[in-house]
Amino acid sequence: MPDVPDPRPLEGRRLLLGVTGGIAAYKAAVLVRLFKKAGAEVQVLMTPDATRFITPLTLGTLSEREVLIEIFPENADGSWTKHVGLGLWADLFVVAPATAQTVAKLAHGFCDTMLTATALAARCPLLICPAMDHDMYRHPATRANLERLRSYGYEVMEAAHGELASGLVGEGRLPEPEAIFDRVVAMLAGATEAAGSLAGRHVLVTAGPTREALDPVRYLTNHSTGTMGFALAEAAARRGARVTLVAGPTALPTPPGVTRVDVVTAEEMHAAVQAHRDADLVIGAAAVSDFAPEAISASKIKKTGAEMVLRLRPTPDILAALGREKRPGQVLVGFALETDDGPANARRKLEAKNLDWIVLNDPKEPGAGFGPGTNRVTLLARDGTVEDLPRMPKRAVAEAILDRVAVSL
Ligand code: C5P
Predict the structure, then answer these.
(1) CATH 3.40.50.1950 fits 14-195, yes or no
(2) Fewer CB in 10 Å around end: N or C, the chain?
(3) HEC string of 271-289?
């Protein structure tokens, strides 16, 4: 039986599409459509000159995301480090078409626009698709610049031969969008194989809050939404892992390819985690309630007007229990939500719970900690390494964490 091609080979992938100011920029619209139909999220970055060939409205509408152009936009929301976050967010950065000017800038590390700055900050693979007039393409300066880009590990897709906008016939045409699309699919398949693959691994993630009942109507909980843990589970599944997600009460949908176990209390979460403690990698992203009421009242506690005293008992420390029984080769990752003296407290926690990594974040910092949006974390490793990551969407934080943790497995 012939192989049936995957209709959505870019499902869950995140692409940056850089569009520069050449006539072939119109083909970017087709590229965005192909990427989106294949399941990718697409963020378009245009150079200011590219907007003279195709409008940001066209590419923004097709990509369903605002197109980014200037590195210092007029209406900046204070996040001028967006290029850094985007560079970490993306699985792949395609520049199509890449003009001689942009090729030269990228070859020499210029970062004067959102496109060039993001390229310089990006950790993902880059695919450069030059398109220009034949003589510009063959010029020794352009050849040398393209060679330089290859020496940085970028892939360069040579231009096609054919009719050019100048009326000349020769090399310099942008390859057809379908050919660029196929190269992107192949590069991503190769990249997953190479770095950070979790194929064949069992990853266990805890996420969300826990809820400890006081009586049939009231409970103790916290502000956790589960976003960070769900993003980690999703990213691990995309890297080929078998993923078990033990989730406290949250409204989030189950990520594709993930087995979800819903729990309510810390005790239930502990039992579910123990049932899957064979995992190769355990990430404790849940905000587990440290205390539970000593007794749950069978009926609603009445208001009497008098002072109310609650007696609380400690809940099991789920990660610490795993740390005590850690088997060789197993990797444990915890989170530390600290409002004061973060790095020292996080390191203490890493040691006390016998973890390999701990992810520190501060709930008081804007754009970090609880909530659906972004996070800004510091990663502390058992070997003493400390790495501050910039503020970025939680899905990009998840990828950055897995990039580092996957190599220690
Ligand atoms: O000790 P602290 O609650 O700050 O530790 C946070 C880390 O430990 C998180 O990774 C959290 O998921 C985990 N934890 C746990 N069980 C608890 C409390 C915290 O697994 N009872």
Answers:
(1) yes
(2) N
(3) HHHHHCCCCCEEEECCECC
